[in-house]
């Protein structure tokens, strides 16, 4: 190494050390926002992967059940075929266990990413509004409280068993993966369907597949869409209270009594399952 290199090296180190404190807050904020966006994208990818893994695991469970029934019913007459059936059943069980473990691992990772994203969102909000004057801070807190689900008193339309959550589902007629934003609840025939919160009915629509849908505007910028009703007890423009009966549950085309509910906020789909506290 030449003699001049020993002179340049300390200078470069000094320049780097001196330049470090000049990192601006805006650059730090941009980095945090970039991490927040990446966590959101990661959450969406994990949601799709978990849905696909759940469907594959169910298919494997069905295959294992069919192999078990085939072996029990003794469709194969010779011993060699029975041995092959037993091996196939064992392999199906191994694949089913692996699929179940993979689904659980994806679920845990999805919960972790969601929690991390929620914590980062809370930190960004606190950083944004942390230096407000007392009166402005109080006003901001009041506005935030009005946007919280607890302040709006979101309720389930029926106390039924959850059948489906928001996510990607396969459309039976077309066999295509479609994104759904609704929560589906199994209800009893003619069970009372309730408003999820106080608000004003905006529309009552008869659906092509049968039954009715009710669109209701709620405080905090929320809008609910409840479908699967056989009879309607409200009309457009009617004010409703939280838990008020808006109609009766009816059967869908498959003969099941299913109530579907979507929650939107400012023309964008909200996390209906989280807002209604519905889990499978």
Summarize the structure in words.
With 280 residues, this protein is an alpha+beta fold. The protein has 2 domains: 25-131; 156-276, Distorted Sandwich (Glucose Permease (Domain IIA)). The protein is built from 6 helices and 12 strands. The strands form 2 sheets. Strands 1, 4, 5, 6, 7, 8, 9, 10, 11 and 12 form a 10-stranded antiparallel beta sheet that branches. α2 (25-73) packs antiparallel against α3 (79-129). The longest helix has 51 residues, at 79-129. The protein is flat and about 70 Å long. The model is unreliable at 1-23 and 129-147 (pLDDT under 50).
What's the layout of helices and strands?
Elements: H1 3-19, H2 25-73, H3 79-129, H4 134-147, H5 149-152, E1 161-164, E2 167-171, E3 176-180, E4 183-186, E5 192-194, E6 199-206, E7 212-218, E8 222-232, E9 239-240, E10 245-249, E11 258-265, E12 268-269, H6 272-276
Antiparallel strand pairs: 1-4, 2-3, 4-11, 5-10, 6-7, 6-9, 7-8, 8-10, 8-11, 11-12
Helix pairs in contact: 2-3
Key structural traits:
single chain, 280 residues, alpha+beta, Glucose Permease (Domain IIA), 2 domains, ten-stranded antiparallel beta sheet, two-stranded antiparallel ribbon, flat
For the record, what is the CATH homologous superfamily label of the largest domain? Answer: Glucose Permease (Domain IIA)
CATH class of the largest domain: Mainly Beta
Any idea how many domains? 2
Main sheet summary = 10 strands, antiparallel
CATH architecture of the largest domain: Distorted Sandwich
- Please give the number of β-strands: 12
CA-CA gap between termini: 67 Å
């Amino acid at each position: 190494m030449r003699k001049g290199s020993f002179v340049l090296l300390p200078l470069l180190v000094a320049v780097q050390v001196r330049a470090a404190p000049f990192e601006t807050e805006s650059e730090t904020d941009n980095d945090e926002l970039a991490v927040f966006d990446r966590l959101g994208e990661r959450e969406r990818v994990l949601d799709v992967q978990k849905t696909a893994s759940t469907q594959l695991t169910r298919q494997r469970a069905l295959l294992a059940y069919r192999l078990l029934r085939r072996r029990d019913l003794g469709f194969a007459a010779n011993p060699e075929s029975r041995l092959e059936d037993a091996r196939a059943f064992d392999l199906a069980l191994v694949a089913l266990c692996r699929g179940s473990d993979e689904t659980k691992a994806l679920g845990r990772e999805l919960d972790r990413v969601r929690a991390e994203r929620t914590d980062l969102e809370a930190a960004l909000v606190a950083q944004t509004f942390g230096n407000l004057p007392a009166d402005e801070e109080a006003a901001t807190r009041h506005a935030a409280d009005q946007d919280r689900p607890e302040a709006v008193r979101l309720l389930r339309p029926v106390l039924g068993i959850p059948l489906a959550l928001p996510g990607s589902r396969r459309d039976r007629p077309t066999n295509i993966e479609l994104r759904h934003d609704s929560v589906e609840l199994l209800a009893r025939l003619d069970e009372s369907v309730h408003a999820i919160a106080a608000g004003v009915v905006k529309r009552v629509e008869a659906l092509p597949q049968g039954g009715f849908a009710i669109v209701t505007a709620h405080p905090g910028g929320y809008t609910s869409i409840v479908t699967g009703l056989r009879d309607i007890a409200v009309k457009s423009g009617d004010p409703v209270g939280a838990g008020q009966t808006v109609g009766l549950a009816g059967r869908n085309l498959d003969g099941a009594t299913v109530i579907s509910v979507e929650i939107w906020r400012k023309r964008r789909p909200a996390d209906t399952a989280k807002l209604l506290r519905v889990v499978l």
